[in-house]
Structure formats: structure tokens, C-alpha cells
């Protein structure tokens, strides 16, 4: 299993980003996928889930400001985030549980003016 995140970067407060996670090594369309984030000194926190049946759930801190989606033809997971604020600064990880937990290497999102 391999998960490779991309799309992070520096963005001004109020800006938007779309993160991507290219996946391989498991039957992508059959599995629930998740985004997490982590700031230095804190544990990893759940951001959003998209189930294999496209049902989505969001953490309270990003609800209404983000959209999780998937392209099963491309084996790619996405997270679009809007109206970003400095508290959203973190490393963002995609995750799948396929017999065990798998994580990507993460992509850094920095929200700063």
C-alpha cells in the first residue's frame, strides 16, 4: 500500500487549497478513506472521511469549509479547504485501514500572511 499526498503549501488567511492523495496497492474503490492533520507537539486529529459509498463526514472545525472527494478511476483522494485560517496550519495525512493502518508521508499546509 502506498499513499502519496500533494498540494500543500503556503496560503494566506481566507485562501483555499486542494490536497490530493494518490493511492495504490489496495482495491481503492472498496475502502473508506480519511484525512487527518497534525501540528507539532499534538496528536494526529481526524479531519474528514469519505466512505466507499461516497458518504462523507467532517470534523467540526472544518465542517462547511471543506469538501472531501474521491476519483476511483484515478485512485485519488482529495480534500478541498476554503476560508483557511492560521489554526489550519498542520501536516495533512491521508489514511486507509487495509488490514492495518496506512498513512502517507504528509503534506504541509501553512496559513499565514
Helix run count: 0
Topology order in helix (H) and strand (E) letters: EEEEEEEEEEE
The largest sheet, given as strand count, sense and whether it forms a barrel, is: 7 strands, mixed
Gyration radius, rounded = 13 Å
Strand content: over 45%
Structural class: mainly beta
- Tell me the overall shape: globular
Give the end-to-end Cα distance, rounded to a whole number of Å.
Answer: 37 Å
Contiguous uncertain segments of 5+ residues:
none
Strand tally, please? 11
Task: Give descriptors for this structure.
113 residues; mainly beta; 7-stranded mixed β-sheet; 4-stranded antiparallel β-sheet; 11 strands; globular
3D structure, described in words:
There is one protein chain. The strands form two sheets. Strands 2, 4, 5, 6, 9, 10 and 11 form a seven-stranded mixed β-sheet that branches. With 113 residues, the protein is an all-beta fold. The chain has strands at 2-6, 9-11, 17-24, 33-38, 45-50, 56-58, 66-71, 76-81, 90-97, 101-103, 107-111. The protein has no helices and eleven strands. The termini are far apart. Strand 9 and strand 10 form a beta hairpin.
Q: Topology, please?
A:
Layout: E1 2-6, E2 9-11, E3 17-24, E4 33-38, E5 45-50, E6 56-58, E7 66-71, E8 76-81, E9 90-97, E10 101-103, E11 107-111
Parallel strand pairs: 2-11
Antiparallel strand pairs: 1-3, 3-8, 4-5, 4-9, 5-6, 7-8, 9-10, 9-11
Question: Summarize this, please?
Answer:
With 113 residues, this protein is mainly β. Helices cover 0% and strands 52% of the residues.
